[in-house]
Write a structure and sequence with these properties.
By secondary structure, the protein is an alpha+beta fold. It has twelve helices and 13 strands.
Length: 467
Amino acid sequence: MSTPSLSLLERLTAHRTLSAAPQEQIAWLGAHGVLRHLDSGAVLTSMKGQVEGLHVVLSGHLSIHVDRGAGRRKIMEWRGGDVTGLMPYSRLVAPPGDVVAEEPTEVVTVYREDIPEMIRECQELTAIFVHIMVDRARHFTSSYLHDEKLVSLGKLSAGLAHELNNPASALARSANALPESLRGADLAAWNLGAAGLRKEQIAAVEKVRAACLACGIPSVLPPLEQEQREESIAGWLASHGAETAFAEALASTEITFEMLNELAGLMDGQLLDTAVEWIAAGSTTRRLASEIHEAASRIHDLVGAIKEFTQMDRAAVPEPVNVERGLASTLVVLRAKAKSKSVRLSLNIENDLPPVKGFGGELNQVWANLIDNAIDAVSEGGRVELFANRRDSDVVIRVIDDGPGVSTDIRDRIFDPFFTTKPVGQGTGLGLDIVRRLVQRHNGQIELDSKPGRTEFRVTLPATEVS
C-alpha cells in the first residue's frame, strides 16, 4: 500500500465532510484515492457513461444540468468540501446529466472496485457517505417532482388554452355584435309602435315572435339545408314585399311558412315588413344572448374541471377522494390533445364506486400521466379506455390503449427514472417514475400488461368507506 503525501492527507483531514472521521480512515481514503485535476469545462462523469466511483471535491466547482422537458436546468452543484459520485450501497449507474467542472477543480476519486473494501474497513466514513446519499436522494426526488409538475403544467395550460379558445372567441364575437343588435331591436320596436296595428294584428305578430323565441338556443342545420331554408324564406319575403335581409335571422328560428302566411293574411306591404323586422330583430338579439350564455357556461365548466383536477382548494391532509370525478376532470384537461389525434376516449365507472383515501391532486397527476402516455402511444384514430371497478376491499383503475405495446426487452425498465421511449425533447423519463412513487405513497400498486394492440396500466388502491 502506498503512503499518501502529507499535503494530500492534510487536505483530506481538513475536508469539511470528512473531518469527523477517524484519522486512520481518512488515511485509507488518501491511500486508495486518486487525485485528479479537471480543467474548466471538463466532464467528470458523462450521462452516457458509468459513474467511476466516489469523488471527494477538494477545490473548484462541479455542477450537473438536465433537461426534463422544461428546459435545461442546474439541479445540483458541488464545491470544495463536498462529496459526490457513487456512495456506499448505492445502485447508481449513470447520472441524469453530465457532471461538468465549472472552473479548475481537484477531486480525489475512490474507484468503484475499491468501495466494498472501504465499507468493510471504514465504518464511520461509510456512515457519513450513506447520510449524503440519503440527502441526495431526497433532493433529486424533490427536483423530479418539481420538473414533472412543470411539464404537466405546460400540458395543462396548452390543453386549457385550446379548450377555452372556442367558447372565448364565441363569447367575444357575440358580445361585440350585441350592441348593434339591441339598437336594431329598439328601432324595430319603435317602428312597430308607430305602425298603428289593430289588436288582431298585434296578437298575430306576438304569437309568431313568441314561437320564434321559445326554442331557446337556435337550431343548427347542416350548411346546405340552412342555405336552402334561408333562400326559401328570402323568396317568400320578396314575394310579399318584405325585406329579404331578415331571412338569415328567421332561418335560425322555428318559424314556419304557415306562421308567415297567417301574418300575410292580416297585413301586407309596409306593415308586414315592419312586423317581420321586429320578429327578426328579437330573434337575432335572443340568439346572441343564447350564444353568450352557452359560451360563458362552457368556460365556467372548464374552469370547474381544472379546479377539480388540481384540487387547489383542498387541505394538505389525506381525505376521501372521488375517483370518478378525478378521472372525468382529467379527461377534460386532455381532451384537446386527444382531439388533435382523433383519439377516442371512454370512461367506464362501476356504480357506487367507493372513494379512496389520499390526495386528490396527486392521484389526478397519476391519471394525467397514464392517459397522456396512452394518447401518445396510439396511432391516429386510436382508442384509450378507462375503467374503475371495486375488487374486494380495493378500487382498481385501468388505462387501456390499442397502441403497439411495450416490448419485453424494456418492460422491466419502464418505471425507472429518466427512462423514456419518446424522442429527445419530448419525454422526461420521469412520468412513470412519478406515477409509481405517488401510487406507493397511497399504499397502492401499479402493474403493466402489454402486447401489440393492447397495453394496460392497472392501479390498485385501498378503498375507504365514508361514514
